[in-house]
C-alpha cells in the first residue's frame, strides 16, 4: 500500500549529496566561529582574525542555494512548490529563531554589561519576532532585529512579500 507523501517529508534526492552536506556543515561551523569571534572581542584579549573565517559565509550561502535548487528541481518555479518550500522553511527556522531571540533578550536583561551595544525595547522585540525590518534602538542604529544575525531572515521575508 502506497502512502501519500506529506509536505514535511524531505525529498530523497538529498540523500545523494553527503559530501556537499559535509562541506555545508563545515562552512556553518566556520560561520559560527566568525560570529562568536565578533562577540569574543569584548571578553577575550586576542580574538581570532575575522578575515580568515569570513569565507565560510560565502561557501555556506552558495551551497545552501545549490541545495535549495537541487532539491526543488522538479517543481522549481511553480506556485505549489514555492508554497511548500516556504512552509517547510518557516517550520524549520522560525521556532529556532524565536528561541535564540528569547535567549538574546534574556542576555540583554541579565547581563547588560557584557553586551555593550544591545538594548531591549518591546517594539524592537515585536518587530524582530515578526521579521519586520526596523532601525535598532542600540548604539549602532543599524537596521537589524534584536538577534542581529537575523537580518538575513528579515531580508528573506521581505523579498518573499514582493
The count of DSSP E runs of length 2 or more, i.e. the number of strands, is 0
Low-confidence stretches: none
The fraction of residues in strands falls at under 5%
First-last Cα distance: 42 Å
What's the story with the biggest beta sheet? none
Query: Can you count the helices?
Result: 6
List the helices and strands and how they pair.
Layout: H1 18-40, H2 50-53, H3 55-71, H4 79-110, H5 122-129, H6 151-161
Helix pairs in contact: 1-3
Describe the structure.
By secondary structure, the chain is mostly helical. The model has no long low-confidence stretch (mean pLDDT 78). The longest helix is centred in the middle third of the chain and has 32 residues. The protein has two domains: 60 residues; 86 residues, no CATH class. The chain is globular and about 50 Å long. α1 runs antiparallel to α3. It is built from six helices and no strands. Helices cover 59% and strands 0% of the residues.
Task: Give the tags.
2 domains; about 160 residues; globular; mainly alpha
